[in-house]
Design brief:
The protein has 361 residues and is an alpha/beta fold. It is built from 14 helices and eight strands.
């Protein structure tokens, strides 16, 4: 049964034409009449969900390479929502160093997109507004952004990138750092001193079968807790699917992990949950972006709740309506009744109250 389950969980790696060093890139599929998910979206969706979950368990290890020398304390993950551009601050880590509160935003990106600097500029500005609002009266923390690239060009990336936003060259720039993790060697990731970074070793240009066997053995030795160890193994498999250098090590890594029956069962469940959640979140994210375009404005918090509820109740109907309607007609449908069912936003709030009540009991 374990072999069948493992086979069912396999996902196709990204096409060879989209790997580093290939001059002929495969054409990207446009989001138009359908919301079909491309291979790139599947890979990044699975990796995004898995890495987000893993990062919350290994916050100190995640931040350590990007914080200047000296001790620091992880305060918490920011939980404010920037609804204007449907972005969350759950990837922003609040740290305390030398008594000062600092914010570190981590962006996991499948590849460097042309609009990435603009998105970071917008996110930093909106984040500052959110931090100013809670708690009122306190100075918002200084913020830095690190972009972790999973795939991309073969030529080395600069350690820092800027976006010029004013006409005077010396001023009005947004700065962010780039960590092209797929260009790091296995030895470099091991030197970071945490099992968390070992999960990224399948992305390394010098990754070999021998290296992967050592990585699996190291994770088993250093992480005795089953859930934490299997989360790392799940990330190892998901990132092996990304495969930027064409190593095709997924099957071999899977066999190494599944030598232990406990790891086989737990990793399989972790992967299945990540794939299911990743597909759902990716569909809602695409619907949200398309809906904002057809409304010609950003979604309100009320509309965002309604969209999530409608997508959960009838995703195909939601897709058809978003493509067929526009402007205020689309907004009226979004917030309206669902044919005998409670209005989506009301249903979403009711589900939230039931969940909160069950937790208390």
């Amino acid at each position: 049964m374990g072999v069948k389950l493992a086979a069912a969980l396999r996902r196709p790696a990204c096409p060879a034409g989209n790997r580093p060093g290939n001059k002929k890139m495969l054409p990207r599929r446009r989001i138009g009449a359908t919301l079909a998910t491309s291979c790139r979206c599947i890979c990044m969706g699975n990796a995004d969900i898995t890495l987000r979950h893993l990062s919350r368990r290994h916050a100190e290890a995640l931040a350590r390479p990007y914080v200047a020398g000296g001790p620091f304390e992880v305060v918490r993950w920011a939980d404010t929502q920037v609804t204007a551009v449907e972005r969350r601050l759950d990837k922003t880590l609040l740290l305390r160093s030398a008594g000062d509160l600092q914010a570190l935003e981590i962006e996991f990106e499948f590849a460097y997109a042309n609009d990435l600097p603009d998105r970071i500029h917008e996110y930093q500005g909106l984040s500052r507004l959110a931090f100013r609002a809670e708690p009122p009266g306190l100075e918002p923390p200084l913020m830095e952004t690190v972009v972790i690239l999973l795939t991309g060009r073969t030529r080395p990336w600069p350690e820092e990138h800027t976006l010029r936003t004013g006409w005077r060259r010396r001023f009005s720039r947004t700065h962010f750092r780039i960590d092209a993790i797929y260009q790091r060697t296995v030895a470099e990731l091991r030197a970071r001193g945490s099992p968390f970074w070992l999960a990224f070793t399948p992305l390394c240009p010098d990754a070999t079968l021998k290296d992967m066997r050592r990585v699996v053995a190291a994770i088993r030795a250093e992480v005795p807790i089953d859930d934490e160890r299997c989360d790392l193994f799940a990330a190892l498999l998901v990132l092996a699917d990304v495969d930027p250098w064409g190593h095709t090590l997924r099957k071999e890594i899977e066999a190494m992990i599944y030598e232990d029956p406990v790891d086989l069962i737990t990793v399989s469940k972790t992967l299945r949950d990540a794939y299911d959640k990743g597909a759902k979140e990716m569909a809602q994210r695409m619907l949200r972006g398309l809906l904002a375009k057809r409304l010609h404005r950003a979604l309100t918090a009320h509309e965002d709740e309604a969209l999530a509820a409608r997508a959960a109740i009838a995703p195909e109907e939601a897709q058809d309506k978003v493509l067929a309607l526009e402007g205020e007609a689309l907004a009226a449908w979004l917030l309206g009744d669902t044919g005998g069912r409670a209005a989506p936003a009301k249903a979403a709030r009711a589900m939230g109250r039931r969940a909160a009540s069950s937790k208390r009991t």
